[in-house]
Amino acid sequence: MTVEEMEHQKLFKDPNFPAHLSSIMPGLEPAWLAGSSDQVLWKRPQEISGDPCFFPKKHCDGWPKQGMLGDCWLLCCARGVFQFPHLLQQLFPGKQTMWPAASYDGQFTVRLWAHGTWYEVMVDDRLPTIHGKLCFSSCCQRDVFWLPLLEKACAKVRGSYQALAAGQIPEGWMELTGGFAVKWYLKPGHVHVNEEKENETQEYLLPRQWADRLPRLIECGWVMCCRYGNKGGLHSSLGTYHAFALVGVTWGLQGSQSGQGAVEKFNLWNPWGHSKVGENMELDRNEFEKEMDEIVVTYPYSVAGHLQSITTGASLQWQQQLVGTWKSRRTAGGNRNSYHYCLNPPALLTLPNGGEILLVLSQPLPSWHFRNQNGCSLSHPASINGHYSSGIESGNLVSHCTLTNSCNHCNCVANAYQIPHPKLEALGLHVWRDDQAFIPCERKLPAVARECVASLRNQPPILSTPRHHHTSAVYVHGHLVPGCYVVVPSTHRHHVSQCFLLQAYSDEQLEFRPWFQLGHLKESRIHSESYEDTQTACGRMSGRADSITIENGLGTSRALQVVETLQQVLTEVSF
């Protein structure tokens, strides 16, 4: 298709992320552009390649390759997604019109996860180039364009490409998959936590028992790593503050009854793409421990859409999530040393049969924002299997658009993803067992909850984060016996205002709900066509966790009755 034909066809041009220098760098020219900003031309794939395609015929032709932008953290996550068709299909929903189809309109949809909800981000396919080559990420085969379009969608939700120049692997993994990743440090000197104590830094270091678990996860493609400083020597070319994907191991043959000894070498994939296609860098164990500073293990997703435990391999097929806010001087109680700790909004977790439990507390990323509230920056929440994913209703985080039964498009455009306080707070999460918390009481529930939390804060928790940590998400993971538990999310400071998402995963039946509901902690519900059909997102999920289908979900009607009762009781309660 020639340029004249494209203009005649009136291909889509995104007004909210224009083909302009402001979409690359909203401020001063960054050093990595090095005076080349006047040479940037925005071109569509058919202007860059004679035979463009979205996905390659050969899998190796689609591997990511980093450009002049420092988004290695995102490309490592993209490579992880590219290995698994079920994750890739989730990222690019439906059958999108490709080149050179007659119905091609220059518009693509990418599905990204943000704070408990899938969003479909619309982008056009105009990409920044210099001298006919892509400025930023590309695939090993330059005719493949799934990665540049994904990168553009991630840049759009942050306001510019420059906003991708630094990031964390766990944040990128959550954005692309909706999943969770654990980060451990390989050296004590890189542990940064609030009120750090020397004997507690070990909590953030890679556990020794993981030496036997890591190889299995590495060979399945679920592990990544990072290095901070340049150690010099043979591997000085690895760069600083750079991310890699661990793609395989080489086993030794000594000292093992099964003939498989300790790992001798680690195979690394470098986003810079300096090696030949299909080739990876090898580091022996000593080199790896010297050169790398951080290791990230992602929780695998099964083809059925269930999160899998990285410790036992069990399918954590029961899930529920709560959304809420900490409000300064009202529901932000700070850490356990604070007298106001009981103000934090507690949640109640019931495990009738006990089981493995993963609790994740996360906060919105400050980088998610949109420059125009009246534009099409966000489409409606992502449609999964014909139904819409759960909404976020607390605070002023997101205002969802109205959906009609006649079409799957918005009647009004969603507001910008607004973060009331862009600074990441230090997060903490504590769990206590307290069967008395579920006994009905005639007293007003907020007062009961606060008295309970106040009494529990001086007792050792069953599960807890080692310290409050400045990060986008913290977690606790363990096995719990049958019973009832109080879960308290908190920030280190007590005078903050911030939104949060609290997710619970288990291999056994669970019930997870707010202790009381005043707009500060709410159940995340699945949108359906009528109020009577609305159900809480509790139970064993069929497919993805945000699917509407719930099998054997116990406590659904009871939860709705509890919520309705609480709403009547709490109308008289104020903070």
UniProtKB/TrEMBL annotation:
Per the UniProt record, one Pfam family is Peptidase_C2
Active site residues per record: C72, H242, N270
PROSITE patterns documented for this protein: CALPAIN_CAT
Ranges for the Calpain catalytic domain?
11-276
Keywords linked to the UniProt accession: Hydrolase, Protease, Thiol protease
GO MF annotation: an example: calcium-dependent cysteine-type endopeptidase activity
GO BP terms: proteolysis
SUPFAM superfamilies per UniProt: Calpain large subunit, middle domain (domain III), Cysteine proteinases
Q: Which domain of life is it from?
A: Eukaryota
- InterPro entries attached to this UniProt entry: Calpain_cysteine_protease, Calpain_III, Calpain_III_sf, Papain-like_cys_pep_sf, Peptidase_C2_calpain_cat
Gene Ontology CC terms, in alphabetical order: cytoplasm
Q: Which PANTHER family match?
A: CALPAIN, CALPAIN-10
* Similarity comment: family membership: Belongs to the peptidase C2 family.
Per its record, how is this protein called by name?
Calpain 10
Tell me the classification of the organism that encodes this protein: Eukaryota, Metazoa, Chordata, Craniata, Vertebrata
